[in-house]
Design brief:
Shape: globular
Number of helices: 3
Organism: Gluconacetobacter dulcium
Structural class: mainly alpha
Low-confidence stretches: none
Pfam families: HTH_23
Order of helices and strands: HHH
Radius of gyration: 11 Å
Protein name: Transposase
Length: 52
Amino acid sequence: MAQQIDWQRLSPVVSRLVRDGVSPGRIAAQLGLSRSAVRNFIDRLAEIAEAA
């Protein structure tokens, strides 16, 4: 079964950890998420930032 992730709730936490230099693998482990889900979310954040 696919993970149902509430990115709206987790977005500020993940964004802060990324800014602080925490690796996607470490973020995934800390939050109990898959590394690929975290990497995909970080990629989307980067795309949004580039478009702005």
